[in-house]
Amino acid sequence: MLHLRLIVPPDRTEAAVDLIERTVGTTHVVVLPGAARDPAGDLVLCDVAREAGQELLHGIRELKIDQDGSIAIENIDLSLSQRAEEAEEEAPGEAADAVIWEQLTDATHEESTLSITYSAFMMLATMIAACGVVLDNAVLIVGAMAVGPEFGPLAGVCTGIVRRAPRLVLRSLTALLVGFAAAICATTVFSVCMDGLDLFSRDLLDGDRPNTGFIWQPDPFSFVVALLAGAAGTLSLTSTKSGALIGVAISVTTVPAAANAAVALSYGEFGQMWGSVEQLLLNLLGIVLAGTVTLFAQKLLWRTQRGHWLRSNRKA
Questions:
Q1: Pick the residue with more confidence: 41 or 107?
Q2: Of residues 113 and 200, more confidently modeled
Q3: Per-residue model confidence as pLDDT tens digits over 128-155
């Protein structure tokens, strides 16, 4: 379930409480008149089944409470309440299928902002992958995939497209492109330094690499895996299954491809470099395409399920 904490202007408290009580799937309603100081207003608390959360949130925003008051939403990890169980049973659909679009937008906004920390993770992940590429070490490649933060901006692009939020799309694309550009530049310098220390060599890069050679040799499977990973990653975000997102992170070769491009560039191996760039672009395109389609499908599916539930309740 979800817990809502609202600071409501007194002239709209009655309307807000009435909306909460009319929404199927809500319970544990608490009203504390005049309890809020900044902004001033009444404090209204309630729990709502995730399936009914988007509908309730939409209605509350129509009251402009987000402009004159405050709306805060938290996930409830444990609720020992018979009434809460009844509320979840009354709500339409399944909690795992419900998407709280404002929550998704907020999450992707935070993950898709270009920052020093984001850039540092991108550079470090790409450098780790560079070591894996040169040593043909699959463990290092998997580790770099898990460290890379690039799925946040990719999810931001998908969410921005579906929600028609051009600022989110632009912010996410900026973080994605600048992050990869900075990571490739930094890793190229890193590769030159490693070569100077006799830890990297052209022979290692050009040698037989059965574990990592695929990184710069894209094929149809590269795009297929990216599509599957994009769909899985999007589902993990909308259903808050963070464990699944980790699996997605180690299934696509975005960071390793950038690393291979950087190392190849440092040695003037332009064939490998362009092959790696092609692999990188294929993966990025596949993830964005699949993620966007998945979000559109979830939106349509939930609207259809909601329509069936309303029609059946009218007949009853």
A1: 41
A2: 200
A3: 999 999 999 988 998 888 888 888 899 8
Q: What is the mean pLDDT of the chain?
A: 87
Residues 146 and 283 in one domain: yes
Total-model pTM: 0.81
Among 55, 75, 98, give the residue marking a domain's end: 98
Supply the CATH number for residue 186's domain: 1.20.1080
Q: What is the domain-level CATH number for residue 79?
A: 3.30.70
- Range(s) of the domain holding residue 245: 103-302
User: For the chain, what is the HEC assignment?
Assistant: CEEEEEEECHHHHHHHHHHHHHCCCEEEEEEEEEEEECCEEEEEEEEECHHHHHHHHHHHHHCCHHHHCEEEEEECCCCCCHHHHHHHHHCCCCHHHCCCHHHHHHHHHHHCCCCHHHHHHHHHHHHHHHHHHHHCCHHHHHHHHHHCCCHHHHHHHHHHHHCCCHHHHHHHHHHHHHHHHHHHHHHHHHHHHHHHCCCCCHHHHHCCCCCCHHHHCCCHHHHHHHHHHHHHHHHHHHCCCHHHHHHHHCCCCHHHHHHHHHHHHHCCCHHHHHHHHHHHHHHHHHHHHHHHHHHHHHHHHHHHHHHHHHHHHHHC
Q: Is residue 297 part of a domain?
A: yes
Name the pLDDT band for 316 (thresholds 50, 70, 90). Answer: very low
Q: At which of 75, 98, 121 does a domain end?
A: 98
